[in-house]
Write a structure and sequence with these properties.
- The longest helix is centred in the C-terminal third of the chain and has 19 residues, at 133-151.
- The protein has 10 helices and no strands.
- It has a single domain, classed as Leucine-rich Repeat Variant.
- The chain is globular and about 50 Å long.
- It has helices spanning 3-11, 17-30, 38-48, 54-67, 76-86, 92-101, 110-126, 133-151, 154-166, 170-179.
- α8 (133-151) packs parallel to α10 (170-179).
- With 184 residues, it is mostly helical.
Length: 184
């Protein structure tokens, strides 16, 4: 890892939110493409998924999601349950940030894509008794759409539409369906 990136990783631990945010944006952008240093930070990010600080949990989830494309050892297959757990975080904003980025894991390969779709489907079905479940479901539908837009897999749209049809409230069913309006 180059010294600039290393410095930004150190800044992720800063108590100053502006420094932490600048570091996060830099690293997030750099991980949109494959990087060579994934495993230099992987274990720390896995540990941060359960950190007491909700900012660290959210950052770790988002960065791991991005780093999945740079994971030739496919560690994410083993670590995915811990990543999914952050989508149920007690701090809703942390859960939401995690949920909105987890689709990126599916860009890493066929196994990862199937794992993400399966995980999101289960999350959709099982969130019904959670506070803000309609936002959770909306984020899941949008995540499936983003994944489909990138990998162009018709089975994803079919599964998303099946999920939408599970929604009993017509208002929310229409809202979710609007995400897929060109596919239905």
């Amino acid at each position: 890892m180059d010294s600039v990136t290393k410095s930004y990783f150190e800044d992720l631990q800063s108590q100053d939110k502006d420094i932490r945010y600048e570091a996060f944006i830099y690293i997030l952008k750099s991980t949109e493409e494959k990087v060579e240093w994934t495993y230099e930070v992987w274990d720390k990010l896995i540990d941060d998924l359960t950190d007491a600080n909700n900012h660290r949990r959210a950052i770790a989830a988002q960065l791991l999601s991005n780093l999945s494309i740079s994971d030739p050892e496919k560690r994410i297959l083993k670590d995915f349950p811990a990543l999914m757990e952050v989508t149920k975080d007690k701090r809703f904003v942390t859960a939401r940030h995690s949920l909105q980025s987890i689709w990126k894991v599916g860009l890493a390969g066929e196994e990862q894509k199937e794992m993400v779709v399966s995980g999101l489907k289960e999350r959709y079905k099982n969130c019904i008794n959670e506070k803000n479940y309609t936002l959770i479901r909306y984020d899941i539908i949008k995540s499936l759409k983003k994944l489909d837009d990138h990998v162009q897999d018709d089975s994803i749209s079919k599964q998303a539409i099946d999920l939408i049809e599970l929604e009993e409230d017509n208002k929310y069913q229409k809202k979710y369906a609007s995400v897929w309006k060109n596919k239905k």
